[in-house]
Amino acid sequence: MSLGSSSQASALVVITRARIIAVVSLIVTWSIASLLPYYTPTIKDHVTTRLSEARQKIPKVGIEWRPLGLISDPRHRFNTSKVALLIEPRPLRHLVPQILHMISVVPPDWRFVFVGTNLSTASVGRSYATKHQQVIGKLDLLVLPTPWEIDSKENVHRLLTDMRFYDEFLPGVEWLLKYEYDSILCANSATSLNEWLHWDWAGSPR
Ligand SMILES: *[C@@H]1O[C@H](CO)[C@@H](O)[C@H](O)[C@H]1NC(C)=O
Ligand SMILES: *[C@@H]1O[C@H](CO)[C@@H](O)[C@H](O)[C@H]1NC(C)=O
Predict the structure, then answer these.
(1) Which residue intervals define the domain DUF5672 in the entry (predicted)?
(2) Atom 12 of ligand 1: nearest residue by CA position
């Protein structure tokens, strides 16, 4: 009995101490927060003067930047004969992370082409990460002009079996990795995609 009551008492003490600490820390936080508005202008002034001091120390440099012939098209930084292709009419939420995953797993010399509708290309192109990939020449987002259509499986199959599609939209491409919205490549695989290039066709049945 006595043991029980003493442990109850110590629990009470602990609770009270914890409460006191909480109240004290709240008071301290409030007082600091209430002081902050007075400090802000001083901090701003200080930062501005430091910035202008730093600016005065920057030497004046003129840069004449001329793109070098071939390198002006950033696509030529990659191997333009290898393209990973995704055709998707729906603006699915996971397309951006999926494309970024594929970019990170497929060997770095491959380029990426996304063929979509107005809606799906807009949803993919809105992300900062995909914009960056477009700027560096890694990724192209493509809306096919009429009469090409990708709104049904049959139309996509018609597209993929029409030589004009390859001639017009994928000129010079020799190797194509065609992946789907539900595809993923194992990032930890010991085999590289480049080891499959001697095959005319490799794939899995659906
Ligand atoms: C592109 O890759 C293929 C196969 O790996 C290679 O034979 C070819 O030389 C590469 N092209 C360029 C421009 O690097
Ligand atoms: C897609 O966008 C183009 C150009 O902005 C426009 O001409 C075309 O009508 C649009 N297509 C659809 C299906 O909204």
Answers:
(1) 141-205
(2) 79
Query: For residues 22 and 195, which has the higher predicted lDDT (pLDDT)?
Result: 195
How far are the Cα atoms of 65, 78, 82, 171, 204 from residue 69, in angstroms, in the given order? 13, 16, 22, 20, 41
How far apart, in whole angstroms, are the C-alpha atoms of residue 190 and residue 174?
24
Q: pLDDT band at 3, cuts 50/70/90?
A: very low
Beta pairing class for 111-116 and 175-179: unpaired
Exposure of 169 in the CB half-sphere (CA atoms within 13 A): 22
Does the pTM surpass 0.90? The reply is no
Say whether both 92 and 113 belong to one domain.
Answer: yes
Nearest CA, atom 1, ligand 1: 79
Query: Which of ligand 1's atoms lies nearest the C-alpha of 194?
Result: 5
Assess whether pLDDT exceeds 90 at residue 165. yes
104 and 126 inside one domain:
yes
Q: Are residues 58 and 26 in the same domain?
A: yes
Quickly state the pLDDT bin for 32 (edges 50, 70, 90).
confident
Of the residues 63, 91, 117, which one is the last residue of a structural domain? 63
What is the percent of the chain where pLDDT is above 90? 55
